[in-house]
Design brief:
mainly alpha, 8 helices
Length: 155
């Protein structure tokens, strides 16, 4: 059984059994550059490709917005193997970067529910003493400082 790429499965167009390299390249450009305006997508994709694959000594291999636009506007149907491999690698790198960003955002949202770092450094006994004093003055921060005080019934 032939192993298929997830990216190629998503790029199938209609009921055709084969797809063009340009359609695959366009899908990869979109996944590298992200959504939004087309010009911003080309700018972002070209910047990422230039950063990952500079080709400083080879001017014919350098990534430009014009090359990406030529595929997007179907002005050319030639996608070389090295271009496809670099597009695929950049698409994977962009996907991994977006996943890391999502995880960081999720972690940041979770961290706002936790006590600050200096409170976590305190021992349980110290946190209990602070929480009791906060309860004594009627503050609702006691459960935030010392979650061990909650019995779980309010959840």
């Amino acid at each position: 059984m032939e192993k298929k790429s997830r990216i190629l499965d998503k790029t199938k167009q209609g009921k055709c059994k084969h797809m063009s390299d340009v359609a695959t390249a366009n899908y990869l450009i979109k996944s590298i550059g992200g959504g939004g305006r087309i010009s911003d997508m080309f700018f972002e994709a070209a910047a990422i490709l230039r950063k990952l694959f500079p080709h400083k000594g080879e001017p014919k291999k350098q990534w430009t917005e014009r090359r990406l636009k030529a595929w997007w506007n179907n002005e050319t149907d030639v996608v070389r193997h090295w271009q496809m491999m670099e597009l695929y690698a950049a698409a994977e790198a962009a996907k991994n970067e977006r996943e890391l960003l999502r995880a960081a955002k999720r972690d940041h949202a979770d961290s706002s529910k936790r006590p600050p770092v200096f409170v976590r450094w305190l021992s349980l006994k110290q946190r209990l003493i602070i929480a009791e004093k906060l309860r004594g003055i009627g503050s609702s921060l006691a459960e935030w400082i010392c979650p061990e005080l909650t019995d779980g019934s309010d959840r």
